[in-house]
Automatic annotation (TrEMBL):
This is Glucosamine-6-phosphate deaminase. The chain holds residues 27 to 274 of 643 of the full protein. Residues 10-236 form the Glucosamine/galactosamine-6-phosphate isomerase domain. It comes from the Bacteria.
């Protein structure tokens, strides 16, 4: 693990966006697709804003990009403003030239019986396009990456999970109350994430400081699923000063 700490998250986000843009361009130059694993939430917003700016102002093309989002609430309509489907289109996909059929997001509209086959197909599709070249992550205060809550197995793949109380409480504000937050979600697994060739985790603000200390300096354990990242050989934690403030 490499830790890079910055004063300001906007500055750090621009550097992460630059790495993604360089990867997209180098893959395009050799005629290859660039497979990106993407996150939602507040953490990656400025990375997406910077990628949109580079598309508009610097001609960065996403025609060779294939994306797989980490997770989606269940049940959840795609048109719902709380959906991760909506979030991704609003912050990124509507503003770039990625072909619609190269965008993959777990489907919150599936029936219970459809979920397992969907998850197996999601894994197969990631493998079929050559695996994730780059995975962008945030971290939840439970230590989740994607929605892999405490107890998630090292070998887990894409699946339906039950959200922790703290995760739902943290989301309650944007859902106008805890009772409106879905109890379940579909998420890529720990193994899915760790199979990425490169991982960058974004952490901003004081309220992430404690879980980031446990993640980076604690013992590897399913109690804090993000600690599994310690076993990955090409992961960087990009933190602002407040998020890095508890690190020794
Ligand atoms: C979102 C995701 C989650 C978030 C995490 C942090 O796709 O997988 O793990 O990254 O809950 O959320 P924010 O960035 O809103 O603090």
């Amino acid at each position: 693990i490499h830790n890079i700490s910055f004063g300001q998250s906007t500055e750090a986000s621009a550097i992460v966006a630059r790495e993604i843009a360089d990867l997209i361009r180098s893959k395009a130059a050799s005629g290859k697709p660039c497979v990106l694993g993407l996150a939602t939430g507040s953490s990656p917003i400025n990375v997406y804003a910077e990628l949109v700016r580079m598309h508009r102002e610097e001609g960065l093309s996403f025609k060779n990009v294939i994306t797989f989002n980490l997770d989606e609430y269940w049940p959840m309509e795609k048109s719902d403003v709380q959906s991760y489907h909506y979030f991704m289109h609003e912050h990124l996909f509507n503003h770039i030239d990625i072909p619609a059929d190269q965008v993959n997001i777990p489907d919150g509209t599936l029936s219970q019986e459809e979920i397992k086959p969907f998850c197996i197909a999601y894994e197969a599709k990631i493998k079929a396009v050559g695996g994730l070249d780059f995975q962008l992550l945030g971290i939840g205060r439970t230590g989740h990456i994607g929605f892999n809550e405490p107890g998630s197995h090292f070998n887990s793949g894409t699946r339906m999970i039950t959200l922790d109380y703290l995760t739902r409480a943290d989301a309650a504000g944007s859902f106008r109350g805890l009772s409106n937050v879905p109890k379940k979600a579909i998420t890529m697994g720990i193994n899915t994430v760790l199979s990425a060739k490169r991982i960058v985790l974004l952490g901003w603000g004081q309220n992430k400081a404690e879980i980031l200390k446990e993640t980076i300096e604690g013992e590897i354990s399913s109690t804090v699923p993000a600690t599994y990242l310690q076993e990955h050989d090409n992961t960087t934690f990009v933190l602002d000063d407040a998020a890095a403030s508890e690190l020794t």
